[in-house]
Amino acid sequence: MPEALQPLLYSRWRGHRIDVVDDGVSTVGHVIGSIGIPLTEVSSIDVGGVEVDPRWRPVPGAVVSLVPRGRPQTTPTSPPRFVLDVHLGVLARRMRLLGIDTAWYNDVTDDALIELAQQQQRVVLTRDRALLLRRAARDGAYVKGNDPATQLDDVIDRFAPPLAPWTRCLACNGLLEPVAKSAVLDQLRPGTRRHYDTFARCVSCGRIYWDGAHHAPLERIVSRYTS
What we know:
single chain; alpha/beta; 3-stranded antiparallel β-sheet
């Protein structure tokens, strides 16, 4: 088993050759899923040096080899669009900060998540292996790492999306546009009115942005990927 796929295996299968009893019914795709590996993480399935379809039915004695996804990985759209599960909210905000088209909702069900991905041709990002094992989750990826910084590193490395920092709303993913201070003056606190003159507004939700005290830590994130 390739090293890149080892962490996805159910614990009892890790670290050694895997022998699976052929039941005469299951496809090779089903067998691969039964040991914990979503097909979203597999580039090709080889039997005796010949690539086979996930619907191929194994025969006794067949030796199956898996090839992990290459990087950068192609996506249904260019530039890629993503939708993240409910547990990846911080990652979603950081991806939006970099200008990556990222849908995220804190109350969406798995079924709705997959439906949205299919309708909008988005890649599902998740750390829920069971979600990716579902047949309907055709375009998806298992995100490596438990902290948002490591997760963002993994997404950038795996998909190499074009970056356009400071162009998307962190709250809703809408696009930002410059806006005159006079147009948003009534929405600003007195301190902000006195000290800042440059603003942007989300075309979708109307949220106002400026380079306030919160800007420095965000700039450090951006500079990590654009320097």
